[in-house]
Amino acid sequence: MPSIESSRLRLFATLALGLVMGLGGCSGGQVLTQGEIGRRGARSFAAPPTTVYYACVGALLANGYEIERDDIEQGVLVTRPRAVADGGAVTARAYRLTVEPDERGGSRVVASPMIYSGGRDVSNRELWNVDGPRGEHQLWTELFGDVDAALARPAPDPSQREALAKVAVPATDPAAAKMLSPESGLRPATLAPAARPASGSASGK
User: Quick check: 128 pLDDT over 90?
Assistant: First the structure.
């Protein structure tokens, strides 16, 4: 017959395990898989890669991101982490975009988001708000909508990339408020649609 002491130990172990599982279930966060990014974070556009690439630059700038890596030859854009509000454990987010030719003569964009907590990359943690309000599904829809809006306007000559960078005004700049009013639409000089308010998309624990 098991002793009273061993029974108590088993009871305490069971209660502790239930508590841990309960806390994990209440966090509300999810893991963002590569499969989900491939399904919902990718979009094809009926325009050549160079044109789509600059439209993506403008869309990111309009959403308050600063470009950290700009490699048009490889079709890769990486932003610096941007602070988010009400993100719980998540304090910042960034994007890595790839732009490649597709089989129909257009371009395919994959937008891979990244999240950070205190400067540490926590993208592999269960901290994502995927399909909730201001979740990744909604943010992807808005980002690709901004790319579509940029493509609807005449694109500047790609050779003027340096000039575009000089006149681009990030949405976080207070001086950008007048230029990026909701009714202002696109600014052809930067391929940037009207800025969106900064918000967090991650779910804190």
Answer: yes
Angle value at C-alpha 139, between 164 and 147, nearest 5 degrees: 35
Q: In angstroms, rounded to a whole number, what is the distance separating the alpha carbons of residues 83 and 75?
A: 25
The region, left, alpha or beta by phi > 0 then psi within -120 to 50, assigned to residue 134 is left
Cα–Cα distance for residue pair 54/77, rounded to 1 Å: 10
Decide if 168 contacts 183 (C-beta within 8 A): no
CB 31 within 8 A of CB 126: yes
The span from the CA of 61 to the CA of 190, in Å, is: 9
Q: Does domain 27-172 have CATH number 3.30.70.330?
A: no
Contact criterion met (CB below 8 Å) for 132 and 112? no
Closest CA to 116 of 131, 132, 128: 128
Burial 193-203 (b: 16+ CB within 10 A, else e): bbbbeeebbbb
Instruction: Kindly list the domain boundaries of the chain, sorted by start residue.
Output: 27-172
pLDDT per position as a tens digit, 100-119 = 999 999 999 999 999 999 99
Residue 178's φ and ψ, nearest 5 degrees, are -70, -35
Say what percent of the chain tops pLDDT 90: 55
